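Hi V.,

Quick status before I head out on leave. The structure for the redesign project is tokenized and pasted below; the design run finished overnight.
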């Protein structure tokens, strides 16, 4: 499907969630379980509040926003942030659709139905398409993976940690120990 056809397909099936890989394959996304979604919401609240309090220019997004990456995949991370500069470079029409860019920051939270390998591959895809910082939080394996361009993946074997937003978000710390898991 073309970009327009895929967008229309998603709009016509708005009660379902889809992603599309770089090969054009459509991926049906199952809804997150209530506990997983609440965990994601709590993370979004902390991040969004920090952005607002610190007047960080840019746009934050939840899991229903789609982004067309440079490799043509359409992805919907659980949490995303795009710099003001990148966002303002888009036309209003591009902003209303699956924005043709890769977010600067993404968080993926593993739901019970998610394959860890699938999510790890998505994180690599985000980096390959221009993401500057990405966190994969695996509640079920009790691990966190931090991805940054040209750096080794950092793996934490606990969810009782503090994740630093440095260097992208100086001063931002997500204390996972404070969020019910």
């Amino acid at each position: 499907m073309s970009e327009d056809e895929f967008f229309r397909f998603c709009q016509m099936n708005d009660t379902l969630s889809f992603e599309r890989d770089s090969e054009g394959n459509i991926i049906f996304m199952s809804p997150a379980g209530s506990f997983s979604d609440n965990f994601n919401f709590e993370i979004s609240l902390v991040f969004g509040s920090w952005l607002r309090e610190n007047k960080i220019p840019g746009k934050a997004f939840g899991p229903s926003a789609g982004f067309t990456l440079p490799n043509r995949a359409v992805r919907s991370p659980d949490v995303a942030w795009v710099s003001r500069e990148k966002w303002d470079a888009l036309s209003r029409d591009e902003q209303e659709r699956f924005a043709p860019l890769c977010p600067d920051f993404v968080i993926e939270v593993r739901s019970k139905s998610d394959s860890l390998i699938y999510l790890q591959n998505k994180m690599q895809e985000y980096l390959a398409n221009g993401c500057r910082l990405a966190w994969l939080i695996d509640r079920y394996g009790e691990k966190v993976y931090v991805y940054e361009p040209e750096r080794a993946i950092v793996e934490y074997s606990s969810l009782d940690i503090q994740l630093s937003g440095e260097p992208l978000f100086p001063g931002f710390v997500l204390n996972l120990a404070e969020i019910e898991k």
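Above is the designed sequence. The chain has a mean pLDDT of 93.

G. will cover questions while I'm gone.

Best,
W.
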